[in-house]
Amino acid sequence: MSKVVAGGLTALVLAGSRGPDDPMARAFSVPHKALIPVAGVPMLLRVIAALAATPEIARIVVIIEAPEIVQVLPGLAAAANGKPVDTFLAAGSPSLSVVAALAQYPTPLLITTADHALLQPAWVSHFLSHVPAGCDAALGLARSEVVLAEMPDTRRTWLRFVEGAYSGCNLFYFATPKAQALAELWKQVEALRKRPVAMLRLLGPSYALRYLLGRLRLSSAIARLGELAGGTKAGIVEMPFARAAVDVDKPADKELVERLLATDIR
Fold first, then answer.
1. pLDDT reading at 193 higher than 70
2. Element (H, E) at 59
3. 20 to 30 A from 208, CA-CA: which of 89, 99, 159, 225?
4. Angle at 260 (CA atoms; ends 79, 262), nearest 5 degrees
5. 29 phi and psi angles, rounded to 5 deg
6. Domains, the chain
7. pLDDT digits (tens, 9 = 90+) for 6-22
8. Residue 207: enclosing H or E segment and its boundaries?
């Protein structure tokens, strides 16, 4: 495992929206998706509070196209708990924003999203402490059986490999400057997000075919992504927390998150 120095990391929070007509912001009558209240607390504030309570995190940077939203957010000081919260102007997409931020903020960096409304400090610490040694970058994934054991009716986007089916957890670790190459590759993947066949072709024909036939190993896919990013070493952290796979991307997600939070306080 890699060693992360306690209190030394910068955390980037991706809080960009889909513009003035963001469907989620419109659905909940707020000026920005990050301000959607979850159990009465804006999502962004929940994420900031979780990161501020994580010992390994020293500073929080919110990447957003409207920095003034963060600067006047009621309750920000209490959520930050004495840790600095800065803003960085978002680019046109998450990957473009990360590429731009990497030019200003040196690695190592933790990256998460503003709609990760259930985020807990223990999840972040677990993720950081389990990054495989020698990795330039890592991402968190949760197995389907872990997620479905707690939330059997949830609908997730599963990545299906020989080892099992996985859901992303919106946790990324950029350990070294070489992770810049993975961010650049992310731009290509993001541009093809509505064209899954074209996305698979990025891996190469044999990899795409094995994935479609259910014969591709996750370890092989990750190694291939590293090759495509100029020899970058990428790694996976399996998250044992079912709720780490939940973000608020549609109204049904908000309902699920609030049900889970209500269960916690009974």
1. no
2. strand 57-64
3. 99
4. 75
5. 55, 45
6. 9-259 (3.90.550.10)
7. 558 999 999 988 766 88
8. helix 205-212
Task: Work out the end-to-end distance of the chain between its first and last CA atoms, rounded to an integer number of angstroms.
Answer: 37
Q: Give dist(CA 87, CA 224) in Å, integer.
A: 34
- Count CB-CB contacts under 10 A for residue 93: 17
DSSP code at position 167: E
pTM (predicted TM-score): 0.92
Buried b (16+ CB within 10 A) or exposed e, 49-84: bbbbbbebbebbbbbbbbbebbeebeebeebbeebe
Q: What 8-state DSSP symbol labels residue 15?
A: -
Is the bond preceding residue 108 a cis peptide, omega within 30 degrees? yes
Lookup: tokens for 20:
């003035």
Going by C-alpha positions, the residue among 239, 26, 9 that lies closest to residue 116 is 239
Say if residue 114 is exposed, middle or buried (CB neighbours under 10 Å; 0-12, 13-18, 19+): buried
Region 184-198: what's the mean pLDDT?
71
pLDDT (tens digit per residue) in 125-134: 999 999 999 9
* Per-residue pLDDT at 4: 57
Please state, in angstroms and rounded to a whole number, the distance separating the CA atoms of residues 93 and 80: 26
